Amino acid sequence: MTPGEPFAGFPLEEAIASRARRCGIELRPEAVAALAAHARAVIAANEQLHLTAIVEPAEFVERHVGESLEGAAELPPGIEGRLLDLGSGNGYPGLPLLAARPGLEVVLAEASVRKAEFLRGVSRRAGLAGARVLARQVQRASDLEDVAPLCGIATRAAGGWAKVLPRLAPALSADGVLLVWAGEEVESVRSRVAWRRYELERSRPLPDRERSWVWVFHRRLAGGDGVPGAR
Q1: Whose CA is closest to 225, among 136, 140, 158, 106?
Q2: Got the DSSP string for the chain?
Q3: For residue 114, how many other CB atoms are within 10 A of its CB?
Q4: Beta strands 213-219; 172-182: pairing state
Q5: Which of 49, 67, 103, 223 has the most crowded Cβ, counting Cβ within 10 A?
Q6: pLDDT averaged over 10-residue windows placed end to end, the chain, 231 residues
Q7: Do 37 and 126 meet the contact criterion of CB atoms below 8 Å apart?
Q8: 12-219 belongs to which CATH class?
Q9: Domain boundaries, the chain
Q10: Under 8 Å CB-to-CB from 63, ≥6 apart: which residues?
């Protein structure tokens, strides 16, 4: 696969729809088309923006689209509200979450100006009207005053997530959900004082990956916010 011919000869739409069904999601045809357009755009822009190290078609669908949809399967089909994709980068998992759960408005937070501009363009061209790009670094709840309250936060490989996510808890609604794509390090991270702001509900293993999960937390109100000395 070359940048000029992203996914040439590969049944991309069929692969996306089939992968969604594997995690219990029946995507609408327009959602499949949007995710395919997004995937092609990522590969087309990859040489300039370094959006992914995964360019083999089947692996790309599995690791980017499929693993994002595994997280979408943990959200109620009728969920509504505004969800933050922290450190969105190439648009995963945020855009697949939006495609699978169209009641959401997904805010793609990306500090890189060039990547943020890419996300704006690809969201528009793919017809994902519920996407909004926040071109700034998000480190604390005050950085989200213009988008809070959030019904959810999602992050996949965002740098510094273990320290940043507890600071963002006040931006979540009372029943807000937190989705974290990560490995077994979450078990030690969640024992930190600052992580008392969240309660782990469950984890979802990522298929064919060793020690990789989607971790599902909810905001904990009693004794959670304002933990003295939290870090």
Answers
A1: 140
A2: -BTTBTTTTS-HHHHHHHHHHHTT----HHHHHHHHHHHHHHHHHHHHH---S--SHHHHIIIIIIHHHHHHTTS-TT--EEEEEET-TTTTTHHHHHHH-TTEEEEEE---HHHHHHHHHHHHHHT-TTEEEE-S---SGGGGTTT-SEEEEEEES-TTHHHHHHHHGGGEEEEEEEEEEE-TTHHHHTTSGGGGGEEEEEEEEPTT-TT-EEEEEEE--TTTTT-TT--
A3: 13
A4: antiparallel
A5: 67
A6: 74 98 97 98 97 97 98 97 97 98 98 98 96 97 97 93 97 96 96 97 95 96 51 36
A7: yes
A8: alpha beta
A9: 12-219
A10: 54
Number of Cβ within a 10 Å radius of residue 199: 16
**The two structure tokens encoding residue 226:** 């304002």
